[in-house]
Amino acid sequence: MPLVEITYAPHVAESTLRELASALPHLVSKAVECPEEPYDVDLRPGDVDLRFRPYGPLDRGGLDVVIEVRSKWFESRAADRQERVDLLHEGIAEATGLDDFGVYLTLPVAAWSQGED
Fold first, then answer.
1. What is the CATH number of domain 3-106?
2. Beta bridge mates, 34
């Protein structure tokens, strides 16, 4: 279950943020797909969690948007993580038209549990 935090500058249009909200679940799922957690294109609640946050008055960074993706570490994911994040960046640019943004992919050792529907 990837956790995705999107931090954005005040001048980023709401329409762009909506495009991100629409595109990111699929793009992130493809980017972190692996044998241990295959992506079947049928996203269900709990599969991807998006959190949008505007830059605060003390935040600094310089990019219009920073997208941080955290997903459980698996060796198969870690082996090609740079390729994964590069492809994710490319997919986001194509889907949204953004150009001044960065993507940070972290693969912590983690566990996830949630109730059943």
1. 3.30.429.10
2. 37
